């Protein structure tokens, strides 16, 4: 058992500073499921190259975190990342300068095609219902301690 994430040796405290990740919506999604069965992987971060496409999936399950299963979801959209960077659980996800949620974790179901990136939201609201449009900008907020 050498995986430091499974052994809970790595946490957000290891991250001192990281850049914002800018993105743009390529696809806006609509719909909800109450039985999706997403298995969030143990790692708390994922590194992405410029132009990677991720799928944003929302949940309102307060216990959604790495290593958990998420059933209640809404589909937000597919986003192209405009710069390379690292996404960390707890990062703020902003659209039109409004926070839509925070990163809860990642599901590998569709890898290597794309990474399901789970956003903990106050309320499950799909990309269409939020009013997101193709080409809209997204910001995953970095930080410096």
Provide an overview of this structure.
The structure is a single chain. This protein has one helix at residues 127-130, and strands spanning 17-18, 21-28, 32-33, 38-39, 45-48, 53-59, 69-70, 73-81, 85-88, 92-95, 98-107, 115-120, 137-140, 143-144. The chain is globular and about 40 Å long. It has one domain (18-144). The strands form 4 sheets. Strands 2-8-6-12-11-10-13 form a 7-stranded mixed β-barrel. A two-stranded antiparallel sheet has the order 1-14. The chain has a two-stranded antiparallel ribbon with strand order 4-7. With 145 residues, the chain is an all-beta fold. Helix content is 3%, strand content 46%.
N-to-C CA distance? 31 Å
Number of helical elements:
1
- Percentage beta strand: over 45%
Major sheet description: 7 strands, mixed, barrel
Helix content: under 10%
Global structural class: mainly beta
From N to C, what is the helix and strand string? EEEEEEEEEEEEHEE
With strands numbered from the N-terminus, the spatial order across the biggest sheet is: 2-8-6-12-11-10-13
Please tally the β strands and state the result. 14
What is the rounded Rg? 14 Å
Mean pLDDT: 94
Present the secondary structure layout.
Blueprint: E1 17-18, E2 21-28, E3 32-33, E4 38-39, E5 45-48, E6 53-59, E7 69-70, E8 73-81, E9 85-88, E10 92-95, E11 98-107, E12 115-120, H1 127-130, E13 137-140, E14 143-144
Descriptive keywords:
single chain; 145 residues; mainly beta; seven-stranded mixed β-barrel; two-stranded antiparallel sheet; 14 strands; globular
């Amino acid at each position: 058992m050498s995986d430091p994430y499974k052994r809970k040796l790595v946490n957000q405290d290891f991250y001192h500073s990281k850049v914002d990740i800018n993105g743009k919506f390529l696809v806006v999604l609509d719909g909800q499921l109450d039985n999706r069965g997403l298995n969030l992987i143990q790692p708390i971060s994922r590194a992405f190259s410029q132009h990677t496409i991720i799928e944003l999936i929302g949940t309102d399950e307060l216990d959604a975190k790495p290593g958990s299963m998420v059933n209640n979801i809404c589909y937000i959209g597919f986003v192209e990342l405009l710069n390379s960077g690292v996404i960390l659980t707890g990062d703020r996800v902003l659209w039109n300068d409004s926070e839509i949620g925070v990163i809860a974790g990642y599901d590998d179901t569709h890898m290597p095609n794309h990474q399901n990136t789970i956003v903990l939201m106050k309320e499950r609201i799909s990309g269409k219902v939020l009013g997101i449009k193709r080409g809209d900008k997204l910001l995953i907020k970095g930080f410096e301690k």
